[in-house]
Amino acid sequence: MGSDEHIVMLPYLAHGHLIPFLALAKQLQRRTGFTITIASTKLNIYSDHDLPPNTENTENLPPNKIVNLFHASLSLKDPFRCLVRDIIDQEGRLPLCIISDVFFGWAVEVATSVGTVNVTFTTSGAYGTMAYISLWLNLPHHSTDFDEFPLPGFPESHRFHRSQLHPFLRAADGADVWSTFMQSQISHCLESCGWLCNSVVEIEPFGLQLLKKYLKLPVWTIYEHPSSSSRSTIRDEGEERGSSVKALDDFVRTILLQTFLFDG
Questions:
Q1: Residues 6, 17, 141, 188: which is the catalytic one?
Q2: Which is more confident, 262 or 194?
Q3: Which domain holds residue 75?
Q4: DSSP, residue by residue, 24-59
């Protein structure tokens, strides 16, 4: 693999999202030698969106203001597009891909507009991601008075309970501020060329099966235990690696092929 490739990453503004993105960036850089750019925000960028001063992530936000941060993040689309175009101008070539958070579905359009491909990264496991996106896209609890309900994408025998839902999701009706954001961004993510999932196939075979079937897209599992980073540096190159490392290599090969076909 050529080490002159460039990947741009766009994590969501929360530590629980940023940490997996940083781990993925380290894996990719170690395995490929690619340049990795992680886009983030300047302090105070959200002062015009009814958010407290010095708000750049969810760390110090009260729960009733988190949705403001979600909607405020939509204003990052044009600045992010400018960043990617600056990279293209400086390097004289397109980034290999844009890897964006599931909450930044608008990055799919940015990738298309500059001529590269987008990959969605869900920082949660496969089963949880599958339930989360299906709940928001379908709001099945809103169309029944029963506490238990089936969920599209899951076997008919599976039931979810209203009490398991976050209050914001439980109250969602499709027209509220949470629904308008989540449904739009998740729908855009379904147009990615594939998804990366923070999981391991040996742990979640069923969840991954459901997620792949629902998305109708490639899904690569890339979870790496923190302690494995130091061990991996002393292993022989020919030694058998874990499924996540193999999936990461498969992901890179697939994106290289996608980019080649896209350019062609």
A1: 17
A2: 194
A3: 6-263
A4: HHHHHHHHH--EEEE----TTTTTTTT--TT-SSST
Long-range contacts of 68-74 (CB under 8 A, 24+ apart): 69/13, 70/103, 70/178, 70/181, 71/177, 71/181, 72/46, 73/12, 73/13, 73/103, 73/104, 74/106, 74/181
Count CB atoms within 10 A of the CB of residue 190: 16
249 is catalytic: no
- pLDDT tens profile 123-181: 999 999 999 999 999 999 999 999 999 999 999 999 999 999 999 999 999 999 999 99
| Domain assignment of residue 1, yes or no | no
- The span from the CA of 140 to the CA of 124, in Å, is 22
Looking at 48, 50, 71, 101, which residue is catalytic? 101
Q: What is the 8-class DSSP label of residue 234?
A: T
173 carries an active-site annotation = no
Within-domain flag for 203: yes
Q: For the chain, what is the domain count?
A: 1
**Helices within the chain (DSSP H only):** 15-32, 66-72, 77-91, 107-114, 126-138, 167-170, 177-189, 205-215, 228-232, 243-263
